[in-house]
């Protein structure tokens, strides 16, 4: 089996952050978080990177990221387009918000034919997570999903909720429950979670009321290990999403990977092994998060985890 591919979700504009945070430098050398992710993945054994971006951002991505890393690893670009919806369906008038991460992932089905991992462009996951993903993808095989009894085995890397919160505002997290064998039993997408004096809390009514949640809750940070069989499963999920959720909330409904994986688990169509990383996650949900991220990256450099210049 050849080397796996790293798929990077980078089409979001980062409205809460206040700009295109995927290409915002976080050190003096001009590196972005995405540079460190690619560097870690390449050294762990990934052989190709696929950027999922908006077409209008292509020139920026090529000049700021792609041109440098393409000298070290194969790079491809695919574009998430609001107009790209299942056949026979129409775009609600006035809709401008992207359709979510499941829709973004489906945009790369024509260029990904090998085992692959999925990450967010603006999240730092740590070096060990990529090694763990390569180990998983190289030790399993894909199966056909033509029959209901065929059950592909995928994986995710889980992090403790308390290690993924920000002091600057709310975050969205896929909250996970595992069984005794370490497989994902259930995943619930919480779109508004905040840090509190007692730990953490989530809201399901735009912040009117809050419910406490354990800070030790295992959460998905959108770091997944998949095989190409997932595309046909997600294609059906997308069709159902447009026929149900878009009708209910035409301007804001999103088809998210954790939600759709949870639906597949509920139907017994897949198994998902929960992998763990010993490294700390951090990201830039808000502009105010950036100083902490910059300090964390510098600390890793000072410890010798990374060279000062990644691509030289």
Question: What attributes does this structure have?
Answer:
single chain, 312 residues, Spore Coat Polysaccharide Biosynthesis Protein SpsA, Chain A, eleven-stranded mixed beta sheet, two-stranded antiparallel sheet, 7 helices, 27% helix
Q: Summary?
A:
With 312 residues, this protein is an alpha/beta fold. It has helices at 33-44, 58-69, 101-106, 127-138, 229-248, 257-266, 290-302, and strands at 5-9, 48-53, 74-79, 116-120, 123-124, 153-160, 171-178, 184-195, 200-202, 211-212, 218-226, 271-276, 282-283.
Care to describe what's here?
- The protein is α/β, with parallel strands linked by helices and 312 residues long.
- The chain has a single domain, classed as Alpha-Beta Complex (Spore Coat Polysaccharide Biosynthesis Protein SpsA, Chain A).
- The chain contains seven helices and 13 strands.
- The protein has helices spanning 33-44, 58-69, 101-106, 127-138, 229-248, 257-266, 290-302; strands at residues 5-9, 48-53, 74-79, 116-120, 123-124, 153-160, 171-178, 184-195, 200-202, 211-212, 218-226, 271-276, 282-283.
- The strands form two sheets. Strands 1, 2, 3, 4, 6, 7, 8, 9, 10, 11 and 12 form an eleven-stranded mixed sheet that branches.
- A hairpin with a 4-residue loop joins β8 (184-195) and β9.
- The protein starts with a strand and ends in a 10-residue tail after the last helix.
- The model is unreliable at 14-18 (pLDDT under 50).
